[in-house]
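Q:
My hope is that you can spare some time for a protein that puzzles me. I hope you can help me see how the letters and the tokens relate. Thank you; the sequence and its tokens follow:
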Amino acid sequence: AITAAPAVLPHLDHSVFLGSGGTPALASGSMAVDASGNVYLASTVAASASSPVHVQVQKLDANGNVLFTVNVGGSGNDTVQSLQLDPSGNIVIAGFTSSTDFPIVSNNAVQPTAPGLANGGPSGFIAKLDPNGTLTASTYLGGDSSAVTNVNALAVDSAGGIYVTGFTADASFHTTGNAIQKTFAGGGYDCFISKLSNDLTLWEWSTFLVPAGGIACNAIALDGSNNVYVTGFTVTDGFATANAWQKHDQGAAGASNAFAAAVNSAGNNLLFFSYLGGSAQEPEGMGDSGAAIAV
């Protein structure tokens, strides 16, 4: 359900349910609102309990009326993690997919194929739809092997540049010459941050975050100078910068610590990296993890 209310919250303005009795799985992935009050929602849905999940993008007007519903994906499982609007009102979504036939609009995409999906995966994806819901650009995002890549979050700058983060276990994940960390460090998985052109045909820059594995990014934000801020979790110590709030991973053995980090707008300088968390392991054994970040 989507619920809207005035900023002061004196009363409920309206609320609407999405989906139907014939849709057994409808999980919200991300939402955005434009200047006119239109609501954009990206969800992961399934037609039946036994069918693959796919991405559904919906636009609602300010009164909660559905203007369009568009499905995006292939014949495998497609999961959306993030939705943002670009300066022109285009809808940008990102997530991960096991579909070898995920719809790629142009062979000029930064990664028009995902060779590893035939033997494993999933691979990350990014897709862009125009304000009417037509798919205009898309790309896989990962390496050439069958190892996992998940795009967990995206941000868009004022010029339309698209930034994504997540984690990968693929040593062949693409990085650029000016990267902070060019090579996969192992440890099972590694956080990446990448900037792509608005049409998804150009790597502006792409880097791993630190020279060790065991780190995953869950969220991303930009400041006014397009410096990039990320948060997530790590089981690796030793990468805090001199200006860190917390210089060491204090998690219990085998447990994760949250972290926050910032990278400059060119993707070639780590501005800070700080651990965030306590020494106790959580009851469910998960440790600490950063789930969202704002600047």
Observations:
- The two ends are 28 Å apart (CA to CA).
- Residues 219 and 293 are 6 Å apart (CA to CA).
- The longest strand covers residues 25-33.
